[in-house]
Amino acid sequence: MTVKDCIKERRSIRKFKAQPVDHALLSEIIETASYAPSWKHTQITRYIAVEGELKNQIASQCTPAYPKNGEIIAQAPLLIAVTYIKGRSGFERDGSYSTPKGGSWQMFDTGIATQTFCLAAFEKGLGSVILGIFDEAEAASLLKLPEERALAALIAVGYPDEEPVAPRRKPVEELLSFQS
After folding, report:
1. Shortest CA distance to 70 belongs to which of 135, 114, 18, 11?
2. Residue 26 CB neighbour total at 10 angstroms
3. What does the pLDDT look like over 124-176, one tens digit per residue?
């Protein structure tokens, strides 16, 4: 599979088979995702693999604003909590911002790592969907995140039990402009 094939064929999967994800396979995916670029090579992204009762608690207690996400989490065999170490990406050692983007660079780096994780999972035969609508404070509490970490997203992961069709894409002419 080429990179282009991986990018074009990966879909957000919301229905999974009950088959568990092997922990060794997950470690391979994380090793690949660790190659995602980051601000000054800070590598702030951290992953928490959530299974069993804690996964079910997150599904039931952290998705009241969008219950569909709770359903997705509940039936996925694995949930990945994507977290990051605060105050490093986009910051200088003295705590000042390196760019006018301020602390936003943290989410940028974590987003790159999250998509890299999803592409690496797809290459290994797993499906995933990145979830952003959930009670972040409650999920962080259930996960017992230390103060220096923040929760960026949740990723439901497993073997796909659906084959969604690719949504229509905007033409390149709408996405690209040239200036000189």
Report:
1. 135
2. 19
3. 999 999 999 999 999 999 999 999 999 999 999 999 999 999 999 999 999 99
pLDDT (tens digit, 9 = 90+) per residue, 68-94? Answer: 999 999 999 999 999 999 998 888 888
Domain assignment present for 176: no
> What is the domain extent for residue 114?
15-162
HSE-CB for 31 with a 13 A CA cutoff: 7
Extract the runs of DSSP E, i.e. beta strands, from the chain: 45-50, 78-85, 127-131, 149-158
Write down the pLDDT at residue 84: 97
Q: How many helices (H) and strands (E) does the chain have?
A: 7, 4
Dmax (CA) for the chain in angstroms is 57
What is the spatial distance between Cα 58 and Cα 177, in angstroms, rounded to a whole number?
A: 43
Domain CATH code at residue 117: 3.40.109.10
Q: Where are the beta strands (DSSP E) in 15-174?
A: 45-50, 78-85, 127-131, 149-158
Query: 46 with 85: CB under 8 angstroms?
Result: yes
Q: What is the pLDDT of residue 135?
A: 97
* Collapsed DSSP state (helix, strand, coil) of residue 170: coil
